[in-house]
Amino acid sequence: MLIHPIAPVFDDRSGILILGSFPSVRSREANFFYGHPQNRFWKVTSAVFEEETPDTVEKKKEFLLRNHIAVWDVIRSCDIEGSSDSSIRNVVPNDLSLILDKAPIHTIYVNGKTAYRYYTKYTEKMTGRPAVCLPSTSPANASWTLEKLICEWKCIRDERI
After folding, report:
1. How far is CA 41 from the centre of its chain?
2. Are 161 and 15 in contact (CB under 8 A)?
3. Rounded to whole angstroms, what are the CA distances from 143 to 24, 35, 66, 96, 154?
């Protein structure tokens, strides 16, 4: 059983929440979200907000907060083989009230179908709030080009406070 090692990023101005499923091996090693160099999350979100792609954990945190974005994951702990979403078992969800009680979140997005599946199965009942499923930025989602992802993810820019 692995326990989620990364604290959520948010502040009292965060208007949107983006949830992944569970950190990859590379993200766990980096101790920050979307740490795999092939994951396109930082390229996509920085393009959406017309900013340079942040390259350090500190710059990534600053980018998120400057753009009123909160980031965390649906799963608090689980059994997982490497980074394989399909191997996830024995899920315990994160308690999103940690963020939702402190930040003015008006829209919840999930990064990919796996996160969406676990959000709707475990978390939506607790929050009473639906989530919008965006296409995954994972390198495993190879059918989506960077340009196509940016186009789909532009909705987050329109949802900021």
Report:
1. 8
2. yes
3. 20, 21, 31, 31, 18
DSSP bridge pairs for 131 = none
Tell me the pLDDT of the chain averaged across its residues. Answer: 95
pTM of the predicted model over 0.85 = yes
Q: Which two tokens stand for residue 28?
A: 């766990």
Q: Name every residue whose Cβ is closer than 8 Å to that of residue 151 and which is 6 or more positions away in sequence.
A: none
9-22 residue pLDDT tens? 999 999 999 999 99
Per the listing, tokens 């009292």 go with 12
CA–CA separation, 118 vs 137, rounded Å? 17
- In the three-class reduction of DSSP (H, G, I as helix; E, B as strand; rest coil), residue 156 is classed as helix
Q: What are the backbone dihedrals phi and psi of residue 97, each rounded to the nearest 5 degrees, phi first? A: -60, -25
Phi, psi of 15 (to 5 degrees): -100, -20
The answer to whether 94 and 118 have CB atoms below 8 angstroms apart is: no
Top CATH class of 2-158 equals alpha beta
